[in-house]
Specification:
- This protein has about 400 residues and is of the alpha/beta class.
- The chain has one domain.
- It has 7 helices and 20 strands.
- The strands form 5 sheets. Strands 1, 2, 5, 6, 9, 10, 11, 12, 13, 14, 15 and 16 form a 12-stranded mixed sheet that branches. A two-stranded antiparallel ribbon has the order 3-4. A two-stranded antiparallel sheet has the order 7-8.
- Strand 19 and strand 20 form a beta hairpin.
- The N and C termini lie far apart (about 50 Å).
- The N terminus is likely disordered.
């Protein structure tokens, strides 16, 4: 048995070296059996206030956003809460389509030799774990960007992009017509930029082996985010003129993050994606891992992480939207008090929503409705509290948390 394992490891390493332009400095680190702890995080608004960001939105120097103030139901503890979302308000602008200029930015990650070396390149075909497809191409063709027919909670919400379909379902009982095509917030136009390269500094990343398929890169989130803010965002603005009025979606391939990274361990791992906003005018952005590890993480496959992060960007673009405390569910073991619509249904709680486009079956994450956080009655499709019927009641007060 030991010889078999060693032989398989040797074959896997040889295949990786043949496919990757960077050879290993050392052997990749072996991962133990069982799925890894995949989770998501966020970096709240930096360098500007919410009020300043909204003034920029009104002046069209950043993305369109609408503000709301709501009173939580008594079973959620009552109280008044304010926040902002992307697009136009479904409460007052039902017959409105908002388009957000979007740039897909694939990033090639080169791991340091001290961490096993290796290159993770979304622009290169992967014969081992993706059927010979190019990750960036598969990502471009996904329901995050391409239209598909969606039925959520037995309700037909139209043929559109996944996050737009979610947002339509989110406010279906308000101003989204069951028979019309009245309310949309879409990623359009969409442009894919050339692959960018990030060379991970020594002791800030490593390559791991032992997954059902392929290899996994892990890097320090603060180090990478500095690259996003300092290199990727200025590059998008310089190449496209998009700047803060656009959404850069940074695409990683089988690379996750730790906060912080501890050399050659999986401590503080594994962050599958995050979203953030900074500067004046405010720039929003999203980072997500396209996963083809074949079960390296529970309930995660292909575009699960990017769908989670773009959904949260839609409903909490500045990462400042407060809610009554909730938790004890999804990835949140304690209590959390913000409108992160993916977190309550990540991990083992929610369902993945399969969507087949161009012969590939994608797996988007189920997301929680606005009213789940603030209490009934539901604003959402079929009066449920998430877009795939997992939540049929609102959140419970935390502690202890959970859902009704």
């Amino acid at each position: 048995m030991k010889r078999t394992v060693l032989a398989l490891l040797a074959l896997a390493t040889a295949a990786w070296c043949a496919a990757a332009p960077v050879a290993f400095g050392q052997e990749p680190v072996q991962i133990g059996p069982g799925p890894l702890n995949g989770y998501y995080t966020y970096l709240p608004l930096r360098g500007v206030t919410t009020e300043e960001a909204m003034r920029g939105s009104l002046a069209a120097t950043t993305i369109p956003m609408w503000a709301y103030t709501t009173t939580a139901s008594m079973d959620r503890g009552g109280g008044s809460f304010s926040g902002v979302m992307v697009g136009r308000s479904p409460f007052f602008h039902g017959a409105t389509t908002t388009n957000i200029t979007t740039f897909i930015v694939p990033v090639k990650i080169i791991m340091p030799a001290s961490g096993g070396g290796g290159t993770f390149d979304p622009s290169v075909a992967d014969a081992s774990c993706l059927g010979g497809n190019v990750p960036t191409t598969v990502f471009q063709n996904s329901p995050i960007f391409q239209s598909a027919p969606f039925t959520m909670n037995t309700v037909n919400v139209g043929t559109t992009q996944y996050i737009d379909a979610f947002q339509r379902a989110n406010f279906f009982n308000e101003n989204v017509s069951p028979t019309g095509d009245r309310y949309h917030t879409k990623l359009s136009p969409i442009t894919t930029l050339s692959v960018q390269t990030f060379t991970v500094p020594t002791d800030k990343g490593a390559t791991f082996v032992g997954l059902p398929c392929g290899f996994l890169g892990v890097m320090d989130i603060a180090t990478f985010d500095a690259f996003v803010q300092g290199t990727i965002v200025p590059l998008v603005a310089a190449q496209t003129g998009g700047g803060p009025t656009s959404l850069p979606i940074i695409l990683l391939y089988n690379v996750v993050m730790a906060n912080p990274f501890v050399p050659n361990t999986l401590a503080h791992c594994c962050i599958l994606g995050y979203h953030s906003a900074f500067g004046s005018p405010v720039q929003t952005y999203s980072v997500g891992d396209f996963d083809s590890t074949g079960g390296g993480f529970t309930n995660v496959s292909d575009v699960t992480a990017p769908s989670h992060e773009v959904g949260e960007w839609m409903d909490d673009p500045l990462v400042t939207n407060a809610t009554p405390a909730w938790g004890g569910i999804g990835q949140v073991s304690g209590c959390q008090n913000n409108l992160e619509v993916g977190d309550p249904l990540s991990g083992t709680t929610g369902m993945l929503i399969p969507v087949t486009l161009s012969g590939f079956t994608y797996h988007a994450q189920e997301l929680a409705f606005y009213s789940w956080f603030f209490g009934g009655p539901s604003t959402g499709a079929d009066s449920d509290f998430s877009n795939n019927e997992t939540f049929e009641g609102d959140a419970k007060v935390c502690p202890p948390g959970g859902t009704n």
